[in-house]
């Protein structure tokens, strides 16, 4: 019998809470559960994508870009010219264009 890692259940519950809050139109409230979930599992791509979506919905564009960057960092399939283009837009402070580029890259 496998002994499941309790962090998995906690991170999944936090993700579900964040998803519920975001769907209820409360992106600011969704930020804490999403952030805690990725703190528990720092390489969780899906967690970073959810955090990016909530940050964008809350109007926190630089933070949304930072979350997308983390998601891309941990998914090697997304490395390459398109990721470099998105990062360049972010580095220049063009947050809306960077978000569009990251959303296109990740399919989020």
Description:
By secondary structure, the chain is mainly alpha-helical. It has one domain (6-106): Tetratricopeptide repeat domain (Serine Threonine Protein Phosphatase 5, Tetratricopeptide repeat), CATH 1.25.40.10. Helices cover 76% and strands 0% of the residues. It contains 6 helices and no strands. It has helices spanning 6-23, 27-40, 45-57, 61-74, 81-91, 95-106. It is globular. It starts with 5 loop residues before the first helix and ends with a helix. The model has no long low-confidence stretch (mean pLDDT 95).
Number of distinct beta strands: 0
Strand content: under 5%
What average pLDDT do the residues reach? 95
Q: What profile does the largest beta sheet have?
A: none
Helices, by number, come to 6
Spatial gap, N to C terminus: 36 Å
Topology as a string of helices (H) and strands (E): HHHHHH
Structural class: mainly alpha
Give the CATH level 1 class.
Answer: Mainly Alpha
The rough form would be described as globular
Low-confidence stretches: none
Structural domain count: 1
Instruction: Indicate the percent of residues in helices.
Output: over 70%
Q: Give Rg in angstroms.
A: 14 Å
The CATH topology name reads Serine Threonine Protein Phosphatase 5, Tetratricopeptide repeat
- CATH architectural category: Alpha Horseshoe
Question: For the record, what is the CATH homologous superfamily label?
Answer: Tetratricopeptide repeat domain
